[in-house]
Amino acid sequence: MAQQTLTRGTVRRRARLPRRLALLMRPELPSLAQEIIDEVRRSIPEYGRPLKGPYVEALRIGVERALTDFVDRVANPLEPNERHHETYRRLGRFEAQEGRTLDTLQAALRIGAQVAWRRIMKVGPRRRVSPEVMAQLADALFAYIDELAALALEGYMDARPDGEAEAHRRRLLELLLRRDGSSRVLTEAAERAGWTIPEEATAVVAPPGARYVRAALDEDVLADLTATQPFLIVPGKPTQERRRSLHRVLPDGQIVVGLTVPTPSVADSLRWARCALGLVETGVLGDAPVTDCEEHLITLWLLSDQALIDQLASRHLGEMDAFSARQRDRLLETLRAWLVTRGTANDIAKELGIHPQTVRYRMRQVDGVLGERLTDAEARFAIEAVLRAKQLRERAAAPPGAESGRDEAAPRKQSSNDNRPGADRREMST
Question: What pTM did the predictor assign?
Answer without folding.
Answer: 0.51
